[in-house]
Amino acid sequence: METWHWVLIGVVALLVAAIIPYLIMKYACHKPMPGVASYLFMIFMFWTWIFTIYETPRKRRERLKKAGVKEGQVIVDLGCGPGRFVFLAARVLGP
Question: For the chain, what are the domain ranges?
């Protein structure tokens, strides 16, 4: 199988794994629930929050040291995502 097939399978599996609890809470437990899009957004934000907590600034500082980032260097953060390393790297690099 090609790579995009696996990506598609992963996305579908993730959506199914997220929507099944939604349907159980809404119909089996009769809980008032927001729309599916809001529910999926809340799940996304929850996991973003968990990964932000999991990777502490101390761990990020260690990763920057392993990468050889030192004061006075110029670095480029390509594909920085949410920017977890940007401000820490700026402190390490100095003005």
Answer: 1-54, 57-95
